[in-house]
Structure formats: structure tokens, C-alpha cells
Amino acid sequence: MFDVLVYYKTKSWLEGFAIGYGGDGMSVTRFASVLLMFLLVPALLFGAITATYTPEPYLHFEVQPGPYTSDTVLGAKLGTLEAFTDGEEIYSPAWGSTSENFWPAYVSGPMRFYPGGPLIQWTYEFHIMSVAYRHGYPGQPTITKVDYPYSPIIDNGPIQVKVSPFRVELYLVNTDSTNRNIKVKPPELPASYFEPNEVYTLTPMFNPVYSFVVANQKGTKVNEMMNWWDGEPNQNGSYVSVDGNAGENSIDIATGLSPDGVPYGDPPDMVSFSVFLTNQSTEFNLSEAVGTNRKEVNTMRIIVSNGIAGANYSQEVIFTDTSPGSEDFMLLPEESGPTSIPFKLYFDSMEVEKGAIITWSNLQDGSDNTKTIRIGGIDQNIIDSLASGTYSDTINVEIRNP
């Protein structure tokens, strides 16, 4: 008899089940390790600096965004960059590839031009502002307007940043003032001249894609490491790899922008996905998984929450295991020995290729989104020749957004 135990771990979007064969049976124990996708270390082009950029999942306007203290400021957070070092300093950080900032961001929608005045469809200039925490977060912010074709994050310098992580936030706001306490007054349009619960649109040209650049040597100014004609680094500066990408236009700044525009007010509930494995244990005879036989060992279910009725969503599923140097799923002997047991894994009717992405499409809110996990393809000859002992494997199932 075989005994298969399966569990679901909620904390890191990780599913796991372990399979063990021993004498008269096979058991699966709780898989305790946690795999976090964001722990992957990106390739570096410069020193020991790594960086991540986390875009806001859904852009929305709010009063007093981020570091701004006045209720006259209206803005939307675009995302956050964090740069990490192994104790090294960061020299003269800058945004590169910012040629799209030649023009301000034009926001259109209902606006008024004096207190209590009528709402009129209008277009108004907003600006992308960079908010850096040079001495650590939280702390005193340094605000700069993102200019073109490149833009110093602190100032032209030379600058030394000694904290890790070094945090920089980006905002789209109704002022280009670098004073966090600015009070926006006419002829500029303060926040009260915009209408809550309305949706504002940006021109199709609004698609900021930047790069993150630092100086190679201490004492270098930003304008000494950047080309004035294209906003890219010269021999005095280098791109920093952000999420594994480096080079010009390597950071997509505003992926949270909805095609419908930017609402003024609280964002709607985000679509979320909850993943469950239904069976805690399954017992089956070895013959049920030999050859072309396929034994169902579990069922995976994804529940979509806050989705649009009738809309289709998708998730990516990746199966891997701990058997080294093999493209097959393998049961390995816990005692030293040469024998291992290859087996095939099936996701519904699909044979799983270890490490390959499986796209689970047509997920709907309110629907029964389920698929079965099956085991098969075990060679009877290998089973017949097995030495006594315990054989085991741990299978990781990674669930992620496409």
C-alpha cells in the first residue's frame, strides 16, 4: 500500500507534497521549507549592488500622497525601488532613459477652477516626482522632479549613499515642487479642485520606462557619468540590474495603470487567488501507478476573489522536485544506494514537465476551478528489483501571476 499526504502552505504561494516509498508503503510528510520567489539574486552589471522595483498594483489618486503634508496635493504612487549592497556605498544614483519626461503627464477629467465652481472636463499637467530616503526609511525624504534625458535622484552631487536598502519612491502629483510641505494654490489646481470618486485618464504617451544608474567611482557627479544626448551612462557610470534586468528602459514604472484611468479615491478590492489541496492523505496499491495507470493523489482548487463576473483569469503553475541532476521526477533512497524510482506526474490529463510553466487559464470568480494531480508511469521492472528501504521525493508546486 502507498500512503500519500499532501498539504498546502499559504505563506509564500507555495504548494508542496512529499512522496515516500518504504517497504509496505509510501508516505508524504509536511514540507516545511518556504520558497520565496523574490529571494532570487539578479545578475549584476556593477559591483555588489542589486535592486528591485515594486510597482503599485493599482494606481489611484489620493490627498497628501507619500511624503507630502498638505491636503492641497493630489497624487498617485507609482512604485518603489530598493537598492541593496553588501556594505558598499552607492555613488550619485540617477534615473536614466527618462526622455519621455520631456513633456509633463497630462491628466484629463472633471475639474473646477474656483472653490465650489462647476466641474468642467479639462486637461491638467501632473509631474513624476522621485522621493529618496538617503539616510534610511523611514526618514527625511529628498524630493526631486524626474527630468529628461536623465535625472539625479538626490542631486547632481557627487553623492554617497551609505544605507542598505536605499529606498526611492515615485509619485505622479499635481505639482512639481520639491517642498514636501508645499501648499498648491491657484493658478495651479489644488486637490479640492478635483472630484472624488471620478476617474481621470492620462494620454497614451504616458508610459514611463526608466533605468537605474550609479557612478563607478566616488567623487563622480551625475552629469559626469551620464550622456546629455540620450540619458544613458558613459564610462563613468553603470546600469544596476533591477529584478534581473539591466540597460536602457529596463524598469517599467507604472504597470498598475488601468486602461480605464486613475480613480480619485480608494482603489477597488484587488483580484486575489486562494489555492487549496483538498486531500490530506491517499492510499493506493503500487499497481495503480505502474505503466499507463494513473492514480489520482490530490485535487488542486483555485478560488478567485473580487473578480469581475464572467471574466477569465489565469495563473502559472510550476512543478519541481528535489532530485538532483534529473529531468524526471524521482523517488530517491533515503539509505545510501544506487536505485531510484522515476515516475510521471500529471496535472489533469497533462503530463508535467519538471520546471516548465503550465498556464491555468479560464479561472473565474464563483466557478469550480479544480484540477487533479495524478501519479503514473512507474516501471514494474524497477519496482521488482528494489532493495528494501525508504524512497522519498519532495515536490514543490509554485503558483504565480503570469
The proportion of residues in beta strands is 35-45%
What is the number of helices?
2
Distance between the termini: 39 Å
- How many strand segments? 28
Q: What is the CA-atom radius of gyration, in angstroms?
A: 27 Å
Task: Give the low-confidence spans.
Answer: 1-47
**Mean of the pLDDT scores?**
84
Percentage of helical residues? under 10%
What gross morphology would you assign?
flat
Structural key phrases:
2 domains, 402 residues, flat, 28 strands, twelve-stranded antiparallel β-sheet, nine-stranded antiparallel β-sheet, Immunoglobulin-like, disordered N terminus, mainly beta, 2% helix
Describe, in plain words, how this protein is organized in 3D.
This protein is an all-beta fold and 402 residues long. It folds into two domains: 2-37 and 271-400, Immunoglobulin-like (Sandwich); 58-263, no CATH class. Helix content is 2%, strand content 41%. The chain contains two helices and 28 strands. It has helices at 222-225, 380-384, and strands at 2-9, 14-22, 50-55, 62-63, 74-84, 90-91, 94-96, 105-111, 120-133, 142-145, 151-152, 160-161, 166-173, 199-202, 209-215, 237-239, 251-252, 262-263, 272-277, 281-284, 294-305, 313-321, 329-333, 341-347, 350-351, 357-363, 370-376, 390-400. The strands form four sheets. Strands 1, 2, 19, 20, 21, 22, 23, 24, 25, 26, 27 and 28 form a twelve-stranded antiparallel sheet that branches. The longest helix has 5 residues, at 380-384.
